[in-house]
Amino acid sequence: MSVLRSPDPPIQPAVLLENVVKQFYVYSHRTTSLREWFIRAVRRRPIHIRRAEFCLKGFNLRVERGESVALIGPNGCGKSTVLRLIAGIYVPTTGTATTAGRVAAVIELGAGFNSDLTGADNIEFYATVMGLSRKELARRVDQIVEFAGFRDFMEMPVKYYSSGMQARLAFSVAVNVEPDILLMDEVLAVGDRSFQEKCLERLQSFQARGGTMVVVSHDLDLVRKLCSRAVWLQDGMTRLDGKVDEVLEAYRSSTG
């Protein structure tokens, strides 16, 4: 007698954005006092005067586990907004954004850091946000500090760090908490050449272990080194999605 096996459920992608619309508002007037609010209400004038600006318009993105994808395009096209949606910093106006696994983001220099806390305190804070237990953090803190490369400054408040030091610390924490998904926005644009090379080696090691990456960068040579696929955004929509060399060639041709 044969036994029927139910098919295995499909593997969930690492990142899935479906029909995402992200809307922001540009205000020409904002009511900021109770008195003004009362006067405008009595006179039946709008409390705020604003217009809607759409950053993303029905955007879709599927990133499989272990895939490395670059988001490219001109400033203002929506690349960084996509990263913030994946990271959970932004919520879609409509549509859905889901991830599978632990997400680490190096999206903006110093983002997520408390400038009044020391480097050591910020490591603990960031790791806690990432869901690491104290035991896990204790196991990784030395390698975080070692990778950042300035152990003597860990008891100094982050507000006194240079931009390069902040970048080192942010990147070091992100790659050493062993995320499943790593999000990066121009993270290698800051720092000296030796640190950039060390970062590149660590990212390639992360890929070799099956990690998933979504990268925003204007450095197309770096994109080619790190990613096998690129998504070209234009005015909040996908203009081209495909193999990295094909998309970069089309993008370079369009920008002349």
Keywords:
about 260 residues, alpha/beta, Rossmann fold, six-stranded mixed beta sheet, three-stranded antiparallel beta sheet, 9 strands, about 35% helix
Q: Would you kindly provide a written description of the structure presented here, covering whatever features stand out?
A:
With 256 residues, this protein is an alpha/beta fold. The protein has a single domain, classed as P-loop containing nucleotide triphosphate hydrolases (Rossmann fold). It has a six-stranded mixed sheet, sandwiched between helices. Strands 2-1-4 form a three-stranded antiparallel sheet. The longest helix is centred in the C-terminal third of the chain and has 16 residues. The chain is globular and about 65 Å long. It starts with 14 loop residues before the first strand and ends with a helix.
CATH architecture heading: 3-Layer(aba) Sandwich
Percent range for β-strand residues: 25-35%
Adjacency order of strands in the biggest sheet: 5-6-7-3-8-9
- The number of distinct β-strands equals 9
Number of spatially distinct domains: 1
Find the CATH superfamily.
Answer: P-loop containing nucleotide triphosphate hydrolases
Outline: globular
Class, according to the CATH hierarchy?
Answer: Alpha Beta
Q: Span between N and C termini?
A: 67 Å
Gyration radius over CA: 22 Å
The share of residues in helices is 25-40%
What's the total helix number?
Answer: 8
The residue ranges in which pLDDT falls below 50 over 5 or more consecutive positions are none
Topology order in helix (H) and strand (E) letters: EHEEHEEHHHEHEHEEH
- For this structure, the CATH topology is Rossmann fold
Biggest sheet character:
6 strands, mixed
